[in-house]
Amino acid sequence: xxxxxxxxxxxxxxxxxxxxxxxxxxxxxxxxxxxxxxxxxxxxxxxxxxxxxxxxxxxxxxxxxxxxxxxxxxxxxxxxxxxxxxxxxxxxxxxxxxxxxxxxxxxxxxxxxxxxxxxxxxxxxxxxxxxxxxxxxxxxxxxxxxxxxxxxxxxxxxxxxxxxxxxxxxxxxxxxxxxxxxxxxxxxxxxxxxxxxxxxxxxxxxxxxxxxxxxxxxxxxxxxxxxxxxxxxxxxxxxxxxxxxxxxxxxxxxxxxxxxxxxxxxxxxxxxxxxxxxxxxxxxxxxxxxxxxx
Length: 294
Prior knowledge:
There is one protein chain. This protein has helices spanning 6-26, 43-59, 74-86, 105-111, 123-131, 139-150, 170-178, 198-203, 254-257, 271-292; strands at 2-3, 33-39, 62-68, 92-95, 159-163, 187-191, 207-210, 228-231, 235-238, 246-249, 263-264. The chain is of the alpha/beta class. It folds into 2 domains: 30-114, Leucine Dehydrogenase, chain A, domain 1 (Rossmann fold, 3-Layer(aba) Sandwich); 139-273, Rossmann fold. A 6-stranded parallel beta sheet has the order 1-11-8-7-5-6. The longest helix has 22 residues, at 271-292. It is globular, with a radius of gyration of 19 Å.
């Protein structure tokens, strides 16, 4: 069993970007600029945003944050996004999801300029990804693909089972794994809450991507020997023994599943770090596109 270490892979991505940004600065060019929009005070969202800002600083990117109260109007958010769309000094826009119930998430995403949509959620970018046209890929699936490439995991002809069908992870992941690319060419089964015989399907999988948001859902009796297991889950579970009062748990029962696998991602220290590395890569791409067009 080998750990797919998000620390090592994300650091490699960030080192590469840090050198590229340093070169831009030597040429008296501005660094790439990522701006984030955060509504309310959701604990997990706060953690993500803080981490994104920290990673931007470490890599030499410029970052900025627009904070809004939970009761912000849809109009104000839309006005803010329109302004950012027109700002030539900003390359990437990230709207931290989920948004409060009174705001139409899709309407907000649709408003983002696709050229600045570094989260890859705009229908234009989603469509390009489905067609295999170069575009911004949602950061978590992109991060997982970067990890597969770093460890040179053989995926061609393998049976991959993706548990979860969200537009953020499950669905794009299933598309990327099935595409005719270096780390694609899998036969993919997408499972979800209505799937019957989930255990039997998982036991046929060479690769399992668990992205359903239920702590310790994937148990050892659902995983065949030497499978590759990628855990996308990140749930705060109350834990009195921790100073924070909670522990971070993945969707995989790591302790019991790990001994059966050939490769497995830990939580924390796995996919979460890759999500941020992929987001930075997307922002750098957006910056290059932007520079070429001006």
